Amino acid sequence: MDLVFNGVDEPRVIVPHGTLKSSLRSCPERGGSDHTVNRSLSEIASPPYEFLNNDKQNIWELATISCPSGSPAANTRFSPRPQPRDLDFVRNVSYVKDTCQNPDASMRHGFIVAPNTLPLNLPRPDHAIPDYRPDTHYNAELDFPWTSKLNQLYWVGSTTGGNSQAHNHNYRLMHRERLVDFLNSAQVNITLLGRALPGAPWQSFRTSLSRFRNLFNVAFTRTVQCEEAACEALTKEYRFRIRTGADDAYKYRFVFDMDGNAWSGRYYTLLRSRSTVLKQASSASLGTSGSGRGCTTSRSVWIRRSCRRW
Fold first, then answer.
1. 31 C-beta neighbours (distance < 10 Å), count
2. Residue 173: its H or E element
């Protein structure tokens, strides 16, 4: 028996749509016969494994082979639209979270644009993730009461998430770079809700994100996974700050957590804190985040009770 282990923090398991559909049809119905489960191993045909080296290149076709043939992601004639500079409301959550319905994602995430290491075939960016210890590196004595925290959104990190290349400036399409660029740009318009008087109907209106720049503390701390020329370009194009300890996030009321190469290892640590956690992930993650002082207290209790301890 050969056992294959994934030693890198990237999801990489996917089943082609035809194979998946056929396998689901052959599965026993819930509560019905399990004769297919009890077949001997000799009766089950196991196709050979194939190992491909797909790192540092766009893997969209591989990442979407489980999508139905009629879905937008499977349409080979599709050309990605330019990344919009303005931000509007999400009007259909299930739709925008469905990779098969959003071929624009082929140029929106570092794991798709140019994964740094991808030696196995058939990856998928939205598979479930393993358990994490909820209390890793969290020290309540270093945390602050909600009323003492800075009223800002905080995120700092390195340029992981993909392999940055100079000849095509592909880093501009990657998720971390897009976040840092977006929240530090003076040329972005956003849609907000407001009302003229208390009790009046809420109305959407457009405004410039630069009005709220003092509410964001978002920057890179170091360049990694990049060609030398790309590393130099990154330091010139994006905001960088001095690297600090992980406990620095506890100073802020709102902390943003996002993917690197895959899932974030500090997500559960942040959930234990007294800050409100905002989450971006391509992988399905366990957890929730509250909003405001009372919710952060109840959430920290929930995370201690709900997450498995190692």
1. 6
2. none
